[in-house]
């Protein structure tokens, strides 16, 4: 008797998390692009976000344009303790790790690029280290948003810190507003077709920096 080949189950996110730091001084910084992504999704899907003490974050739930119920989270624990907030939500709603899609900034990707993956290591990102530790798994999808490397600093830690905590230029902001629209599309595609299929579209597109029109 031949065994039936079982297709791998579709990975459909139920909780979408954007990583960042609270406090106004971190607003609009490169490191907070995960927060900006959740704000963009919340606006597009008309899901209100509000501070939730139990979840140690800004939280909202509603119905996505495709698929069913969806939850959005911006941990307010500071980046290196993001996992506490994520775990509070997954424990409360009994969500498996693979149903969590985490969105965050990536220096190793150029500005205008996004990279969707099914799983992987933290790659030196403190927010992801915390998420992996608290979910006790690396097997959850993540969408990385390229913020580019700092200019003029090869392996300079202080240069990297000031880069991620710095703000985008006017030209970069034009690109990032297009990137955030694309991120909303990618997340919708993940809900509709599963993360694996969405990867083809989300990993192939690159949004270019416009020529300096205001120069």
UniProtKB/TrEMBL annotation:
Active site: 31
Broad class of where this protein is predominantly found: cytoplasm
Site (Discriminates between blocked and unblocked aminoacyl-tRNA): 21
Catalytic activity: an N-acyl-L-alpha-aminoacyl-tRNA + H2O = an N-acyl-L-amino acid + a tRNA + H(+)
Residues the record marks as site: Stabilizes the basic form of H active site to accept a proton: 105
UniProt enzyme class: hydrolase
Transmembrane regions: none
Gene Ontology molecular-function annotations: peptidyl-tRNA hydrolase activity
Localization per record: Cytoplasm
EC number from the UniProt entry: 3.1.1.29
Pfam entry (one): Pept_tRNA_hydro
UniProt entry keywords in alphabetical sequence: Cytoplasm, Hydrolase, RNA-binding, tRNA-binding
Coiled coil: none
Binding residues for tRNA: 26, 78, 80, 126
Entries under PANTHER family matching the protein: PEPTIDYL-TRNA HYDROLASE
Task of the protein: Catalyzes the release of premature peptidyl moieties from peptidyl-tRNA molecules trapped in stalled 50S ribosomal subunits, and thus maintains levels of free tRNAs and 50S ribosomes. Hydrolyzes ribosome-free peptidyl-tRNAs (with 1 or more amino acids incorporated), which drop off the ribosome during protein synthesis, or as a result of ribosome stalling.
Recorded family membership: Belongs to the PTH family.
Subunit (UniProt): Monomer.
Name recorded for this polypeptide: Peptidyl-tRNA hydrolase
Organism: Calothrix parietina FACHB-288
